[in-house]
Task: structure prediction
Amino acid sequence: QSVLTQPPSVSAAPGQKDTISCSGSSSNIGSNDVSWYQQLPGTAPKLLIYENDKRPSGIPDRFSGSKSGTSATLGITGLQTGDEADYYCGTWDSSLSFWVFGGGTKLTVL
Amino acid sequence: QVHLQESGPGLVKPSETLSLTCTVSGGSVSDTNHYWSWIRQPPGKGPEWIGYVYYSGTTRYNPSLKSRVTVSVDTSRDQFSLKVNSVSAADTAVYYCARVAPTYSSGWFVNYFNLWGQGTLVIVSS
Result:
């Protein structure tokens, strides 16, 4: 069971918008920055969002991140079939003193 | 462009030691702005952070693995390595090396992973 809680799956139609939530506690999300990773089938995870809401160069602005209290959210607009992937949130847990990932959310674009 | 590449045996026997190396190309493991980390992902599960090393040799580990894990760095070869002792089937996973962007707040810790290797599957089986 992960320290950070994500829905196991979400789905939406092409062109639509979807969000993925990541719920934690005061010792992790409530204290530290959150990052998001996209893992396309058969590939390594890739940084999608860092420091809650920043996008690395090359990541389209269809992807956005936000954080409020002990929860974070990844938003994706203009969904494409190429966005089908597993998405993981992550942050440092100051009480446990190590990095924690969420359990992951599988995005299906119907 | 910095590139990370894992290498090592794909099959390890139970109770033996798993050893992997990550080679940093297009950059340097002595980069003072980054740490270097190992992460693993069991089949069908989410990633698990193992630990990190700084070019100076400073390390930090996941407490659940700390007793069996060693991460080290070789600046002369631009490589960092992972050793996991006394492996069992539960250690079967894809192992990734990754570059860490650190942050400081009452100590240095991981802020995010901004570059990943392609990963290497290690199976623990007799």
